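Mods, move this if it's the wrong board.
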Amino acid sequence: MKLLIVTQRVDKKDPILGFFHRWVEEFAKKCDHVTVIGQMVGEYNFPKNVTVKSLGKEKGSFKVFQIIRFWFLQWKLRKQYDRVLVHMTPIWIVLGALSWGLLRKPMYLWYEARGGGLSMRFATLLARKVFSASAYGMPIKSNKSRVMGHGIDMERFKPGVERDKNLIATVGRITKAKQFSLIIDVLGDLPDQYFLELVGVTMTRSDTQLKKDLLSKINSNGLRERVSIQKLDQDALAQLLSRTQLFIHASHTGLDKAVLEAMASGCLVASCGKAFADVLPSECFAQSDDELKSVTKDLLNLSEKEDMAMRALLRSIAEKYFSLNTLIENLARELK
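Not the wrong board. Structure tokens:
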């Protein structure tokens, strides 16, 4: 199999999409050749059977020029691939469908989020299959839908030697949907020894304004010494989670990969995200946003024996259902 992957970013250091570097590495083991077209390309280190091309967004290329280069590359590289996987950006299915149809290259889409708009609707019609991590993350009902789970690198995300009993973490792009304001409220209801590491980045003007609002709330609530906001690459994030006591998640957007990484790292997890209702043990799942405070407190008050058992259970769930090796093997089978 010769595979073309179209994705947003190819950069192992990217704090949001750096994980996708490992996807490409694993696909390279299953394919004769992998070609990757990224809107932005940064640092990468792939096997010899991987070719990477950029649409130039990292150099400030305008969208119209990115689209023209995309059309040029899909035709120029046509002999290097026999099927196409588009990751999270259904618009490329729409823009590429005519050429790929003429070339008889079957198209597949990975999508895990709510919404998607018209481009998602058209892409669903055009693609042969649409993959998602969860049923909740596939916004359009279709017989083409395939629920695959996430792919967590279990070797990178694993428990550390020593855990900081007062460290709480949360991870995600700084957007309204992640409900970081709610998580700050949860922290404010806990004893003063607990502090929060919020790992996230801004990508739009509204994200930047939200970060300012969060910082203002932190200061006005007297939490300045207890909350840190920073961005981390995948390796640094794995180190943080390996020593984190508890991970808090409040988003309803889908099956957030960061929660599964925390589970793999041996963190306790408290979530009110609806997509995790059938994934997390009942002790870790809040039925509503208001219940998140009580679930968090109960987890922090587990006995040592209960604490150890819960951590082992959460990691076993991540390993059994959401390991990277299993995901890529299943995806490769579906693509064939």
